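Session log. Operator J.P. requested a structure for one protein chain; no other inputs attached. Running the standard single-chain path with token output.
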Amino acid sequence: MKILLVDDSPRLLRSLSQGLKKLGYAVDLASDGEQGLDLAETYAYHVIVLDLMLPGVPGLEVLRRLRTRGNGAHILILSARDRVEDRVKGLQLGADDYLVKPFAFDELCARIQALVRRRHESKSPVIRLGPLTIDTARREVSRDGGALHLTPSEYALLELLAYRRGNVFSQEQLIEHLRRSDSAVSSNLIEVLVSGLRKRIHAAGEPPILRTRRGFGYYVE
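Structure written below.
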């Protein structure tokens, strides 16, 4: 899943980016409102984490412009402003959630995951694909009760396909979901991830969960 972090603290951006990348998220960073707007209007993000006290274009104005222009990303305000009026104003302008600084990283992750579930109209954090269980809250995968050890990128790919079960994703679409704006993801990497996933989640003699529709892309049954 793709996340945009917009904050003027280099230290906070660095620490959040490192933590979220370890969980398999593709993370882009913006240090001011103008850069945040440019990235949000160039790439499709699942969640935007937005500070309010930004240089240049303030956070509330970033929020207002994005919603006025029809940007549908879920937006989580992350701000030191803890007054009720600030929270109400942010939510009225179209924010989906509001978290006050200082905060616990685990709570931020839980709120991001809740927004991702909302985007996919899923109430439960657990997705079941036959013998496969995906716990999106713990970001753990098991088969018939036995834990499977996936890399963060393998997990991100599987979670996306599981949320959109039955939908076929081309290599180009998967690349767009997995890459950061400052990096490149090759079609060869997608093939490597798919191959690795199949080795981990499929059992001999059973129908495959991760399938290929030749000429179109990949999906889960």
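Operator note: DSSP finds eight helices and eleven strands in the chain.
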